[in-house]
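Private note to self, pasted from the team thread so I don't lose it. C-alpha cells:
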C-alpha cells in the first residue's frame, strides 16, 4: 500500500496560522481530515474556510453585529497577511485560487474583507482577479 503523501511544513504552518487567528473554524479542519481519510488538501480546506468565513460575515452584517464583524475581519486579514508571508508558491496558490474565490459567493462579504486586507493580502486578491472576475451581484443561497 502506498504511503500517504506528507504535507510540507509551509502547508502545515499555513493551516496552523489560519486556525490560530480563526479558531472558530477548527471544526472544518477536523471534518476535512475525516472526509479525506486524514489527508490535508490545502486548496480544498482554504475553499471551505473561505465559504465559512463568508457565511459568518453575511450573518454578522445581516444582524448588525458590528463589533464581532470587525473582529472577524481583522482576524481574517491578519491570517491572510501571515500566511502570505510564508512566501510559498503552493500556499499562495491556495489563497489565490481557493480562499478568495470562495469569498465571491457574496459581493458584500468580498467587499468587507478586501477593504481590511493588508498589502500582501491585497496583492494576492488582485492577482486572483486575473483568474476570474469578482461576482456582479448576490447569488441566491
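Design output:
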Amino acid at each position: 500500500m502506498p504511503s500517504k503523501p506528507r504535507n510540507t511544513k509551509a502547508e502545515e504552518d499555513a493551516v496552523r496560522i489560519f486556525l490560530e487567528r480563526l479558531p472558530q473554524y477548527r471544526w472544518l479542519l477536523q471534518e476535512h481530515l475525516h472526509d479525506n481519510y486524514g489527508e490535508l488538501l490545502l486548496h480544498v480546506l482554504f475553499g471551505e474556510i473561505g465559504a465559512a468565513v463568508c457565511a459568518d460575515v453575511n450573518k454578522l452584517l445581516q444582524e448588525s453585529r458590528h463589533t464581532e464583524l470587525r473582529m472577524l475581519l481583522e482576524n481574517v486579514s491578519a491570517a491572510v497577511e501571515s500566511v502570505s508571508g510564508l512566501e510559498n508558491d503552493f500556499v499562495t496558490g491556495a489563497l489565490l485560487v481557493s480562499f478568495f474565490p470562495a469569498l465571491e459567493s457574496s459581493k458584500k462579504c468580498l467587499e468587507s474583507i478586501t477593504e481590511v486586507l493588508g498589502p500582501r493580502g491585497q496583492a494576492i486578491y488582485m492577482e486572483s482577479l486575473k483568474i476570474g472576475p469578482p461576482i456582479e451581484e448576490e447569488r441566491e443561497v
